[in-house]
Amino acid sequence: MKQSQQATLAAPVSLSGIGVHSGKPVNLHLHPAQPNHGIVFLRTGLPGGDDRLIDARSLEVTATELCTVVGDRETGAVATIEHLMSCLRGLGIDNLLVEIDGPEVPIFDGSAQAFVEAIDSVGVVQARAARKQLKVLRTVRVELGIGWAELRPNSRGFQVDVEIKFDNPVIGRQRKVIDLSPAAYRREIARARTFGFIGDVEKLWKAGFALGASLDNTVAIGEGRVINPEGLRFADEFVRHKMLDAIGDLALAGYPILGTYKSFCGGHRLNIAVLKELLSDRANYAIVDGETRREAGHAEIASGVAVPAFAPDVH
């Protein structure tokens, strides 16, 4: 990212939708925040009328099965945060209070486009405060089965290199590389939707997942083809969505990353694991701004239902 100043929204904006896993309605309010505030969730609607603040940081991640969850499910958590976080990082939003009255961020059409449009409706403003970045100093790597993820030094910006491989011929093997910028995010990533496999639907339903999934918010794969009548938005929409998810998960670094992220057959679990591995040793990274300064780290298709893949870490 080339922007050197921190940014937030010019005005509040609200959205409403349903959670892809819970199937429950939820209201989301995005509030501008002061410099150095970061991205913070305000979870409302908890038992007893309590509210809870949850920092959008990797230390707050409590689950990565099919989606990324921050906070404690017993005292208040927010699930499926990756599409919103991806949009915020992709468009260069540093500071925001995300007020949400339910347990899961709305899925909308399965991509980040609704968040992009909401932000565009109010605009973005920059503060005088310098934007800090997390600079990768040493390569770190995490492996899981055939999958792996790395964060590597790259002083020119944030490059994302994602490759996926599925036995299903509809997807096969796909790879995409971008240098992240707001323009590239809007053009290449924001509209890519989550995807799912029809054969897994009953298993996920029994586990309490995918209760809000439909052809309106998931690219459904079955019988050797894409079931959705409109087809794909991109020929390689699957890897683009995996990249969208990775950008969102890595936004939990708390700062824009100055480095290269590279993965093969990755997913939420690997994304968070490699980020935590980076942050586990202060020799791996530095927090920098204008000057290089170091700081402490810390389906049944007939009924229109498909399974969101949020696809597994190992294929």
Automatic annotation (TrEMBL):
Any single GO CC term annotated in Swiss-Prot or TrEMBL for this entry: membrane
Native species: Enterovirga aerilata
Reaction(s) catalysed (UniProt annotation): a UDP-3-O-[(3R)-3-hydroxyacyl]-N-acetyl-alpha-D-glucosamine + H2O = a UDP-3-O-[(3R)-3-hydroxyacyl]-alpha-D-glucosamine + acetate
Enzyme class name: hydrolase
HAMAP family: LpxC (MF_00388)
Role according to the record: Catalyzes the hydrolysis of UDP-3-O-myristoyl-N-acetylglucosamine to form UDP-3-O-myristoylglucosamine and acetate, the committed step in lipid A biosynthesis.
Gene Ontology annotations of biological process type: lipid A biosynthetic process
EC assignment: 3.5.1.108
Cofactor(s), names only, from the UniProt record: Zn(2+)
InterPro entries xrefs: Ribosomal_Su5_D2-typ_SF (IPR020568), UDP-acyl_GlcNac_deAcase (IPR004463), UDP-acyl_GlcNac_deAcase_C (IPR011334), UDP-acyl_N-AcGlcN_deAcase_N (IPR015870)
Residue positions binding Zn(2+): H83, H241, D245
Protein family membership: Belongs to the LpxC family.
Descriptive protein name: UDP-3-O-acyl-N-acetylglucosamine deacetylase
